[in-house]
Specification:
Number of helices: 13
Strand order of the largest sheet: 3-2-1-4-5
CATH topology: Rossmann fold
Order of helices and strands: HHHHHEHHHHHEHEHEHE
CATH class: Alpha Beta
Helix content: 40-55%
Distance between the termini: 18 Å
Oligomer: single chain
Largest sheet: 5 strands, parallel
Shape: globular
Radius of gyration: 21 Å
Structural class: alpha/beta
Number of domains: 1
Length: 315
């Protein structure tokens, strides 16, 4: 399932015309355009739109009313990132399948085992694997395969924190001028990650609870950061077990949406998962399920697009 023998062919594969010029079908692009408000941020109005709003709206609108307007996406290698944290949460058959993975001693699916990716599965480490009891190993599989809400919350905060640190370092290395505000780095980086999209087949009750929890963690960040700055003993035991849900900086989300929230009609119902993969491919940060072939395909597409490995993570 996750043989390292696949690694030898990856460089040839990702540089091949098949992958470099790969594009999603017009129908997938149609589904994306129909729901793109969930994945993009509103831009400031242009001068043209303020002076000639009618002409600007006609020139910028995308209509998919006729077959002639149906076009594929741009090639994988020529697509810009979306300001999205995409999460792949596999439920359904994985509720039982995760136990099978444990009994089979499975590793991550092929493309998810690329050496450049930062998140490694414990089964790759023989010392760690041999030191674990059967119960510990079974629980470890569950934490990587069938993630509960608390684990999602903690993983999101860690991923955003690590991503933000990397982006700020990159920003600080850019040439600066005297007109740049002192805090412009933090604000510019924050604009690069504004929304969460959950790629999932989970039930609505579970997803509504998860969305509320993720929003709450972000909303509480301003209060918690302020409290740490103004209260003596901010690192005392009062934060104890809760600090794993704390951002160490002020954070917010403009929107959190899921596969269940998409406007999917009869014509796009059968490409809904393909649209999810397209969003995952373009997401600024992606957290996937290492055992999933859907995640593996997204990882491959991100590799082809030249996405830095630290922006592609696993549970």
């Amino acid at each position: 399932m996750g043989s390292a023998r696949l690694h030898d062919i990856i460089p040839t594969l990702i540089h091949s015309p098949i992958m470099q010029d790969l594009a999603w079908s017009p129908l997938v692009n149609y589904a994306f355009q129909k729901n793109q408000h969930h994945f993009t941020t509103l831009r400031k109005p242009s001068l043209l739109s303020m002076v000639l709003p009618f002409l600007a709206s006609r020139g910028s609108s995308i209509s998919y009313g006729s077959g002639s307007d149906m076009i594929p996406t741009p090639p994988v290698s020529k697509i810009e990132s979306l300001p999205v944290l995409a999460l792949h949460l596999r439920r359904g058959d994985f509720i039982e399948h995760c136990d099978n993975l444990y009994h089979w001693n499975s590793t991550y699916t092929g493309f998810n085992t690329q050496p450049s990716l930062p998140d490694r599965f414990f089964m790759e480490n023989t010392t760690m694997r041999d030191s674990m009891t059967a119960d510990e190993m079974k629980e470890a599989y569950k934490q990587k395969c069938l993630i509960d809400i608390d684990e999602v919350r903690k993983r999101v905060i860690r991923a955003v924190t690590e991503w933000r640190s990397e982006r700020l370092q990159i920003f600080e290395k850019r040439p600066r001028n005297r007109f740049m505000a002192a805090d412009s780095g933090d604000e510019n980086v924050k604009e690069m990650l504004r929304k969460v999209y959950i790629m999932t087949n989970g039930d609505r009750e579970f997803l509504n609870q998860l969305k509320s929890a993720l929003l709450s963690d972000a909303q509480q960040s301003a209060f918690r950061v302020d409290k740490k700055l103004t209260t003596e003993g901010a690192k005392s035991s009062t934060h104890g077990s809760s600090n794993q849900y704390d951002y160490d900086f002020v954070w917010s989300w403009d929107e959190i949406s899921t596969s269940r929230d998409m406007d999917i009609g009869w014509e796009t119902k059968y490409v809904a998962q393909a649209m999810d993969m397209y969003v995952g491919q373009r997401a600024e940060v992606f957290i996937g399920n290492g055992f999933s072939s859907l995640t593996a395909n997204v990882v491959l597409l991100r590799t082809v697009a030249g996405v830095e490995p630290w922006r592609t993570r696993f549970w």
